[in-house]
């Protein structure tokens, strides 16, 4: 069973996009939710060998390479951006993954990433308060 610290760790890393995914499945699969809280957020992402930025770029590459995981890609592109990854770094990782996994997967990944980046940038601009 996930602890309050597990949940806080998750929220600090994945924010509202991650919470939205878990809320959708919590009623039907609390085990998967607990696994994500306990292992992904509170073990894997707490490992100091890779920082969150590097880890997110690895995850983005993996998701693009597997193909068909656009909903998860949205969460991880947002998480990457929220943790200081630059949009061109995300695009470059997808281009690289596409060189090995295939151009159709790279194109799908780019479409999803670009939509996510543009939405994220619009949110950032609208949250800036003018003085």
Structure description:
By secondary structure, this protein is mainly alpha-helical. The chain folds into two domains: 1-49; 50-131, AhpD-like (Up-down Bundle), CATH 1.20.1290.10. Helices cover 79% and strands 0% of the residues. The chain is built from six helices and no strands. The protein has helices spanning 4-26, 30-41, 52-66, 70-82, 87-101, 103-127. α3 packs antiparallel against α4, α3 runs parallel beside α5 (87-101) and α5 (87-101) runs antiparallel to α6 (103-127). The N and C termini lie far apart (46 Å). The mean pLDDT is 94.
| CATH homologous superfamily placement of the largest domain | AhpD-like
Name the CATH class of the largest domain.
Mainly Alpha
Strand content: under 5%
Instruction: Count all strands and give the number.
Output: 0
Query: Which structural class do you get from the secondary structure elements?
Result: mainly alpha
Counting structural domains, the number is: 2
Number of helices: 6
Level of helix content? over 70%
Distance between the termini: 46 Å
> How can the largest sheet be summarized?
none
User: Over all CA atoms, what is the radius of gyration?
Assistant: 15 Å
Q: Write the H/E string, N to C.
A: HHHHHH
Which consecutive residue ranges, at least 5 long each, have pLDDT under 50?
A: none
CATH-defined architecture of the largest domain:
Up-down Bundle
The geometry reads as: globular
**CATH topology heading of the largest domain:** AhpD-like
Mean pLDDT: 94
Notable traits:
2 domains, 79% helix, AhpD-like, 0% strand, globular, 131 residues, mainly alpha
């Amino acid at each position: 069973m996930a602890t309050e610290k597990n949940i806080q760790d998750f929220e600090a890393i994945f924010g509202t996009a991650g919470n939205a995914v878990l809320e959708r499945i919590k009623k039907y699969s609390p085990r998967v939710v607990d696994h994500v809280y306990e292992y992904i957020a509170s073990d894997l992402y707490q490992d100091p060998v890779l920082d969150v930025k590097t880890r997110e770029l690895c995850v983005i590459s993996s998701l693009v390479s597997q193909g068909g995981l656009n909903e998860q890609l949205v969460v991880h592109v947002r998480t990457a951006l929220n943790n200081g990854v630059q949009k061109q770094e995300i695009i470059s990782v997808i281009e690289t993954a596409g060189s090995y996994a295939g151009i159709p997967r790279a194109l799908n990944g780019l479409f999803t990433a670009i939509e996510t980046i543009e939405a994220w940038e619009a949110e950032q601009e609208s949250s800036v308060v003018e003085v």
